[in-house]
Specification:
Layout (H helix, E strand, L loop, with lengths): L9 E4 L4 E7 L4 H13 L3 E5 L5 H12 L3 E4 L6 E4 L8 E5 L4 H14 L2 E5 L10 H10 L3 E3 L8 E3 L10 E4 L5 H17 L3 E6 L5 H13 L5 E3 L3 E4 L10 E3 L4 H13 L1 E7 L12 H7 L3 E4 L3 E5 L13 E3 L4 H10 L7 E4 L11 H11 L3 E5 L2 E5 L7 E3 L5 H6 L10 E4 L11 H6 L2 E2 L1
Parallel strand pairs: 2-15, 3-14, 6-7, 10-11, 18-19, 22-23
Antiparallel strand pairs: 1-23, 2-24, 3-5, 4-5, 7-9, 8-9, 11-13, 12-13, 15-17, 16-17, 19-21, 20-21
Helix pairs in contact: 1-2, 1-3, 1-6, 2-3, 3-5, 4-5, 5-6, 7-9
């Protein structure tokens, strides 16, 4: 099998029948980038272990170093030492953010609350991903943020503003939970300068709540406890100051775990992932319950999950589902591909956030699943997949989206050859994905 971590135009996946083995997961992208920013803003040194090595974390590391944060490599490849600085020492910088939403959004909030002269930009797709709700909230605070291109989207310039915390800051929660996360992570910068509580009021229905819960959990580990009234009102106290816990272990990536857990469900198994389990702070561990509902056997320990299931290559079928995936939108992509092996039509509801991810994932999924012979219908916030009556060989476009490449590796359990175009896009979060995948499957 070709190593997809190196540039190559395509990767051919021959049909496979079985899957079994154990995978030690790479670190969580969402936790890695949050921890890096928290460590940079904290008092003291933080030793971060289990850090994900990927395009998105490299973007964050490069930006923090450009802003004057002292970050050195630890004794292990997945370890860094971050010298917290409280506030960035560099007041003027040009920051390239790639396509890393978990980097540009919190950094925009932090820089806007500090003030300075900054330009944040990224790849063309980043300039199509909305950030207007966050900018509106920051401007309500008195921060100076301006668009350098299309209104509501990066690139952004940040200047000096005068913050005013006398009234709650309102932010829309219905497009992306990362806007609320960005305000929460940066809030202690504002409370320190203003000397009063930072109150956030969420407008609309907050999506992806587990990601916000993750943010609050990590803030607590750095010494800041946020008062929460349901999912509508958040209060960061005037006394909030980040202090290093000394050491932070980044747990395995639960979103990446979904592909391997799915392998066990359709390839017989057992397939075990380590690094994430019952004690995880990530919402995507709930994907294990989705697999149970589809008929897989799931066992879970404190830091591991194991699945066994049918062999779809021998005629086995998963149970069809009709489910709300608002809480686990990334893992939901895995469920969409598993629908190819269901015993009837499957419906994924409440996934509007897919449209503003690395690509328009609803459109991309509809396009690529149809190539394999599935019948697919979409709405602005849902996808219905009817398994193929007759499979067709297909070249799967990945749309410069790492999760498209990884979840469609599951299509190799069908009766036709599958070609994954631009497999190297997995470098965004899991550069060695296809090598690990190859070690688990067999014809």
């Amino acid at each position: 099998m070709t190593d997809a971590s190196h540039p190559t135009p395509y990767l051919d996946l021959a049909p496979v029948r079985n899957a079994r083995g154990t995978v030690s997961l790479p670190g969580s992208k969402s936790i890695s980038n949050r921890v890096l920013l928290l460590a940079a803003l904290a008092e003291g040194r933080t030793r971060v272990t289990g850090l994900l090595d990927s395009d998105d974390t490299r973007v964050m590391l490069a930006a923090l170093r450009t802003l004057g944060v002292n970050i050195t490599q630890g004794e292990r490849p997945d370890e860094v030492l971050v010298e917290g600085c409280g506030r960035f020492h560099v007041g003027r910088a040009d920051l390239f953010m790639g396509n890393a939403g978990t980097a540009i959004r919190p950094l925009t909030a932090a820089l806007a609350m500090m003030g300075g002269h900054y330009l944040l930009h990224g790849v063309p797709r980043m300039h199509e991903r909305p950030i207007g709700d966050l900018v509106d909230a920051l401007r309500m605070l008195g921060a100076c943020v301006a668009y350098q291109g299309k209104e509501g989207y990066p690139p952004l310039s940040i200047g000096w503003g005068e913050l005013n915390l006398s009234r709650p800051v309102k932010v829309n929660g219905s497009v992306s939970s990362q806007f609320l996360t960005a305000l929460l992570l940066a809030a202690p910068l504002a409370t320190r300068s203003a000397g009063r509580d930072f109150v956030i009021q969420v407008e609309g229905e907050l999506i992806s709540k587990p990601y916000v819960d993750m943010t609050l959990n990590l803030m607590r580990r750095f010494g800041v406890t946020v008062e929460r009234d349901g999912w509508q009102r958040f209060v960061v106290p005037a006394s909030a100051v980040y202090r290093s816990p000394g050491q932070m272990l980044v747990e395995g990536d639960a979103s990446s775990a979904s592909y391997f857990l799915a392998l066990g469900a359709i390839g017989g198994g057992p397939v075990r992932v380590t690094g994430v389990g019952r004690d995880s702070i990530q919402g995507d561990v709930a994907f294990a319950h989705t697999l149970e509902a589809m008929g897989a056997q799931v066992e879970m320990g404190a830091d591991w999950i194991e699945t066994r299931g049918v062999k779809v290559a021998e005629g086995g079928r998963l149970k069809a589902f009709d489910a709300d995936f608002n809480l686990i939108p990334d893992a939901a992509m895995t469920a969409a591909v598993l629908a190819l092996y269901a015993d009837g039509p499957c419906r994924l509801r409440n996934i509007a956030s897919w449209r503003v991810k690395e690509t328009d994932r609803i459109h991309a999924m509809e396009t690529e699943l149809s190539k394999l012979g599935a019948t697919v219908q979409s709405t602005p916030d849902s996808l219905t997949v009817t398994p193929p009556a007759s499979w067709r060989p297909a070249e799967i476009g990945t749309w410069d989206d790492h999760r498209m490449a990884m979840c469609f590796s599951l299509a190799a359990f069908g009766p036709v050859a599958v070609r994954i175009l631009d497999p190297g896009c997995v470098s965004k979060t899991f550069p060695t994905y296809f090598d690990v995948y190859a070690g688990l499957v067999e014809a």
